[in-house]
Amino acid sequence: MSTIAGNIAQVEARIRAAALAVQRDVTSIHLLAVSKTKPAAALREAYAAGVRDFGENYLQEARAKQVELADLPLCWHFIGPIQSNKTRDIAEHFAWVHSVDRLKIAQRLSDQRPADLPPLNICIQVNVSGEASKSGCNPADLPALAAAISGLPRLKLRGLMAIPEPTEDRAEQDAAFATVRTLQESLNMGLDTLSMGMSHDLESAIAQGATWVRIGTALFGARDYGQA
User: Fold this and answer.
1) Could you tell me the pTM of the whole model?
2) Which NCBIfam families match (predicted)?
3) Is residue 172 part of a domain?
4) Which of 13, 25, 32, 134 is the most buried (most CB within 10 A)?
5) Quick check: is 227 in a domain?
């Protein structure tokens, strides 16, 4: 068994245990392999071990991998900050975007989504911890943004994404993720997706309702940003 395959098995065991601990159906929780800075060969190993969904932060890097891995039926998720000049490629080459935080970007994604593809699955990124350095919509602006995005024709609003301020304190983790869940519930729009939880806090995220956990380091090892 490769190191990556072994890591995937360990993470899947953590997901199952976390689901069992709060009596959730493990099939409602999906693993998104965060593969930024990792070579296509690593993604191919992860695919061989059963992973189908991959999250990328950097468009140019992601497009190169998509070309190299075109023989595999992978589902691509864009999870990084979005610049206006990158929306066309994202709209054309991804199935999910987890990091929409303003209407201008959503409108461009809708306008540029090819008509022969299904609507683009969208999560609104919420800056739940109020960090100035972090992307995400202000929670106070969320209802209006969600209502506007839900009306765009080539998008399907699925839910929320958040990256709370890192902490090893389980109570603080729970509180941040619970806030995201409460924000989604308060929209009363029947949304089905909470993209939250990473390698260090996936158990807390699952306890608070995560449906996608975005795991990079625990699958692929530490990132080499020199390769980004």
Assistant:
1) 0.95
2) YggS family pyridoxal phosphate-dependent enzyme (TIGR00044)
3) yes
4) 32
5) no
